Every structure is written in structure tokens, then in C-alpha cells.
């Protein structure tokens, strides 16, 4: 979540995030299984040694904190979580610990699953239930705004249920992009995730009203199973957002109440000055009056689409990595030599310092924040360094990755028994090999399997690979460069590289600014 520096001089990197000394985490807690992994850290199941109580521990590696801004961001996240700790729908932070290698946030453990997964699991789903869910989400937004906090990354993945019980509480879990703000303060750094980002964020002139827009997008998805602004590429999504045309004609919208559609229109008002505030949303009849939102089950297709929408297409990510590592010397050109040049200590990986030195050698004048963006974009496994496969995937042009022979090679990698089909068992084996846990493989196959035979043939695989990368993103829209631009690589024109940012479809400001420049308002 880098922000542009105004000069080329950067303050020295700090040593510590917390302004106080803490106990050693492992003297207080025992870490267990991994629960999840994000851009900056890993979340573990942990047990308090004295009481036996279970918690979640988010461990943020200092290797991933590359400059003073990153240290400040982590400290701000901790402050915001403490600031909101009395809200029952915000995950509670129980302690912070720091050592030479990591910062650890011990939080309440939410074991009830993600928002969409819970809906699908329950089966019965109605407008009335959607109204209760969005009321909770907007209550969190109102609480944040009343305390001078703007969330900036509202999306379904950031809401978990605290238990599997019927009366489980829905909790907001991630404040990594959140900021404190003052009334009337305007922000310009473009952050968020493509489907949920407000138009004024893309215009780099926004305030807390952007959170209400994101909540409106969630409501639209809750009632239809699909996002209101959809396209195969981020650029296409941004264009749809700028146009702001809402589809209330397709199924299931003819069967949805007029009151629900009225609320969505007021939350997705393109003008932030006339858009509903969080308080106005909570006062809307569809939210307040249980008799207005019908309790009859929504179309079963909505549940099906929600299930598919929540199943991230991880097969494509694995395939891109496989292809990048199998490209011929001729296709890669001088990239192997370039990798060796950057890898000054011949360790087989490129560190941030090596990347900075290499960029200096080729005459680059990039600021540290921009170099960090390049590193973040390509470091797929989040270990703070680039291996050869990551470097190639980030520098080779997209059309090389999509050539027929490369797609065949990647297909063969997954099709271990050479049957001509990729089966669920083969995908499970690949996920294990790539260290991917908690993958909804059935939904992954359903999303790609066009003839519904329960397996993926080559035609289906190739169609998936050639589709745009307009999926659900994770972090920020600050990457304005790519490796080919920075390193001056000749003959590799066209789209940006296939690093983590483009593969996971986080926001790309080049796409947004191009659309703005073409006259979209």
C-alpha cells in the first residue's frame, strides 16, 4: 500500500513497529496450524499457555516491511483495531507482540466461515436475511465513521462469522488499508479491490462516502450473486463503474422488492455528495421494517452464483507459474542473464536491495516506494524475495504465456495420467504441491467445466487461461510500473507483467487513469 513520495530521499527504515517493549509471543502462546496467508503475513491458530483459550495470531514478517511507511501502516492498523474494540461486530485484538523478525497481532478467533460460504451452506436465503447482513455491515461502517475511521477495503472476504452457531456474530476482520480521517479531509491514494471501489477513488479525490459505495456493491451481490459492475479486465470493470449503469432487468431482479432496489440506487449513487450516508442506509425502510423485505427464498441460481463467486480461480494462478518456468531460452530472450545480473550474491533469489542496485545500474531513477511496488507485484509466495519463476512470470509478455504450445504444456502438467482431462484429484494434488490450502476445488471445476462432465478438458482449460484477469483483488491500486518498463526490456511491448497484482486482479492505476483520460466521468 505504498504512497508516492514527493522527493527521492526516503527516511531510514525503522527497526521496531511498536513504541513499547513486549513479551516474547512464544512464552505466552503456542502457535498451531496456519489459518491463512496474506500479502504481509500469515495467520495462525494459537493457544494461550495459561488459560488454554484459542485465538488467531496474525504474524507480519518484517522482511515484507520495506520502508518507514510500511511500519507506520502496521502501527496504524493496530491503533484502529484498538479504537474499534468495543464494537461487537469488529474482531477484537487481545494483544500485540514484536521480535526482531515479526510483529504479531493476537485476535479473537472466528471459526464460523466467510460471509458467502455461510449463506451457501445454510441453503435457505431470502431478502430479509440479506437485509440483516447488510445492516450489520453498514453498522460497522457507521461505527467506523463516527470514530473518524475510513475502512477503504470493504468486501465479503473481510467478514467472518465468529462461530458455527445459528446466532453467530458477523465480524469485520481486516483493517490493513483503513485510515483515520478528519471531516472534509480528501484522500488521493487509490486503494481497494476492483469490484468494490467507488468512482471517486479512481478519480483520486474521495472521503468516507466510498465505504458506503462498497457496501452497496456487497448488497447487490448478496441479492443477485454477481457484482453490479463486471468485465473480463480491471479496465473494463473501471469503465463500468464510471458509467454506473445498474442492471435491474435480468434475473433475479424482477422478483426483488422495489424497496431493495431503491436502497441500492441510493448507495451506488455516483455522486458522493448525494449518496446515502451509513446512517441514512440504516434508516431506510428496507432495513428498518422486517415486513418490507420478503422472507421467501430467493431464486436458487443466486445461491449457485454466490458459491461460484466466492471460489477464487486458483488453477489459473498455478498454470501461469508453470508456463513461466517452462518457457524456452529463445522465448525468454535475455531475461535469464538479467536475472543473474540482479542476483548479485548468486543465491538464486533477488532481494529488494539487489533489485534497487540493479535498477540503478540500468539508469533507473525510480523512487523506493515504486521499486517496492515492483517487488510486491512479482513476489507470489510472499517470502520477500524473487525466485527465477517469479521473475520470469513478472517480465514475460502475456501473449507468450497464452501461446498454444505453452497452454498444452501447462495442461499436461496438471493432467498427470495423460487422460486428456484434469480431474478433481489432480487439482487437489497440484494445490498440495503449490501449498494452497482451503481451496473450493468443486467450485473451481464448476466455474471452468463448460460441458458439466465433472472434469476439465483442454478446450475448457485454454478458454479459462485466455479470459481476462478481472477477478477479486486483495490490496492496493498503487502499482504504476512493471518490470519491463523499469528494466528497459526491449521487444516486450503490451500489457503489464503477470505478477501477483495482475494475477489476483488488484487495482492497476494505469487502467483507471487511462479511462479517466479518455473522458469518463
From TrEMBL:
Record field: catalytic activity: L-threonyl-[protein] + ATP = O-phospho-L-threonyl-[protein] + ADP + H(+); L-seryl-[protein] + ATP = O-phospho-L-seryl-[protein] + ADP + H(+)
Domain EF-hand: 330-365, 366-401, 402-437, 440-471
GO MF entries: ATP binding; calcium ion binding; protein serine/threonine kinase activity
InterPro entries recorded: CDPK_Ser/Thr_kinases, EF-hand-dom_pair, EF_Hand_1_Ca_BS, EF_hand_dom, Kinase-like_dom_sf, Prot_kinase_dom, Protein_kinase_ATP_BS, Ser/Thr_kinase_AS
E.C. number(s) listed in UniProt: 2.7.11.1
Keywords: ATP-binding, Calcium, Kinase, Metal-binding, Nucleotide-binding, Phosphoprotein, Repeat, Serine/threonine-protein kinase, Transferase
SMART domains found in the cross-reference section: EFh (SM00054), S_TKc (SM00220)
Family matches, as Pfam families: EF-hand_7, Pkinase
Positions with a binding annotation for ATP: 58
Every Protein kinase domain range: 29-287
Protein family according to the UniProt entry: Belongs to the protein kinase superfamily. CAMK Ser/Thr protein kinase family. CaMK subfamily.
Entry protein name: non-specific serine/threonine protein kinase
Organism field: Medicago truncatula (Barrel medic)
Species lineage: Eukaryota, Viridiplantae, Streptophyta, Embryophyta, Tracheophyta
Amino acid at each position: 500500500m505504498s504512497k508516492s513520495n514527493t522527493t527521492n530521499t526516503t527516511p531510514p527504515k525503522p527497526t521496531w513497529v511498536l513504541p513499547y517493549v513486549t513479551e516474547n509471543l512464544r512464552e505466552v502462546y503456542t502457535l498451531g496450524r496456519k489459518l491463512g496467508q496474506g500479502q504481509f503475513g500469515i495467520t495462525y491458530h494459537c493457544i494461550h499457555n495459561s488459560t488454554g483459550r484459542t485465538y488467531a495470531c496474525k504474524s507480519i514478517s518484517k522482511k515484507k516491511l520495506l520502508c518507514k511507511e510500511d511500519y507506520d501502516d502496521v502501527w496504524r492498523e493496530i491503533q484502529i483495531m484498538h479504537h474499534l474494540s468495543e464494537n461487537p461486530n469488529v474482531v477484537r485484538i487481545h494483544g500485540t507482540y514484536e521480535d526482531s523478525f515479526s510483529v504479531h497481532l493476537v485476535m479473537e478467533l472466528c471459526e464460523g466461515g466467510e460471509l458467502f460460504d455461510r449463506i451457501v451452506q445454510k441453503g435457505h436465503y431470502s431478502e430479509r436475511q440479506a437485509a440483516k447482513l447488510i445492516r450489520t455491515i453498514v453498522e460497522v461502517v457507521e461505527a467506523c465513521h463516527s470514530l473518524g475511521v475510513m475502512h477503504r477495503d470493504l468486501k465479503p472476504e473481510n467478514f467472518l462469522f465468529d462461530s458455527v452457531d445459528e446466532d453467530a456474530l458477523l465480524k469485520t476482520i481486516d483493517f490493513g488499508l483503513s485510515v483515520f480521517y478528519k471531516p472534509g479531509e480528501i484522500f488521493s491514494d487509490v486503494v481497494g479491490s476492483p469490484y468494490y471501489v467507488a468512482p471517486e477513488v479512481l478519480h483520486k479525490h474521495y472521503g468516507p462516502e466510498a465505504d458506503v459505495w462498497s457496501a452497496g456493491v456487497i448488497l447487490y451481490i448478496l441479492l443477485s450473486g454477481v457484482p453490479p459492475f463486471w468485465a473480463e479486465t480491471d479496465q473494463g470493470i473501471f469503465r463500468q463503474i464510471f458509467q454506473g449503469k445498474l442492471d435491474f432487468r435480468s434475473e433475479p431482479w424482477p422478483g426483488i422488492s422495489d424497496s431493495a432496489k431503491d436502497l441500492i440506487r441510493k448507495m451506488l449513487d455516483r455522486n458522493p455528495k448525494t449518496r446515502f450516508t451509513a446512517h441514512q442506509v440504516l434508516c431506510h425502510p428496507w432495513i428498518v421494517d422486517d415486513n418490507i423485505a420478503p422472507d421467501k427464498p430467493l431464486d436458487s441460481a443466486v445461491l449457485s452464483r454466490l458459491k461460484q463467486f466466492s471460489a477464487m480461480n486458483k488453477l489459473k494462478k498455478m498454470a501461469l507459474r508453470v508456463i513461466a518456468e517452462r518457457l524456452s531460452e529463445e522465448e525468454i530472450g535475455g531475461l535469464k542473464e538479467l536475472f543473474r545480473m540482479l542476483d548479485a550474491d548468486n543465491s538464486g533469489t533477488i532481494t529488494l536491495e539487489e533489485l534497487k542496485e540493479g535498477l540503478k545500474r540500468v539508469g533507473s531513477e525510480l523512487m523506493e516506494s515504486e521499486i517496492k511496488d515492483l517487488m510486491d507485484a512479482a513476489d507470489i509466495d510472499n517470502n520477500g524475495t524473487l525466485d527465477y519463476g517469479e521473475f520470469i512470470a513478472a517480465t514475460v509478455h502475456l501473449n507468450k504465456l497464452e501461446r498454444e504450445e505453452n497452454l498444452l504444456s501447462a495442461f499436461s502438467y496438471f493432467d498427470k495420467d495423460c487422460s486428456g482431462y484434469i480431474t478433481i484429484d489432480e487439482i487437489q494434488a497440484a494445490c498440495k504441491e503449490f501449498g494452497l490450502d482451503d481451496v473450493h476445488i468443486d467450485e473451481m471445476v464448476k466455474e471452468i467445466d463448460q460441458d458439466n462432465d465433472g472434469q476439465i478438458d483442454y478446450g475448457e482449460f485454454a478458454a479459462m487461461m485466455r479470459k481476462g484477469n478481472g477477478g477479486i483483488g486483495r490490496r492496493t491500486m498503487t502499482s504504476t510500473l512493471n518490470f519491463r518498463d523499469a528494466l528497459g526490456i526491449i521487444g516486450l511491448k503490451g500489457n503489464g507483467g503477470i505478477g501477483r497484482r495482475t494475477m489476483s486482479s488488484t487495482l492497476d492505476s494505469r487502467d483507471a487513469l487511462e479511462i479517466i483520460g479518455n473522458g469518463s466521468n
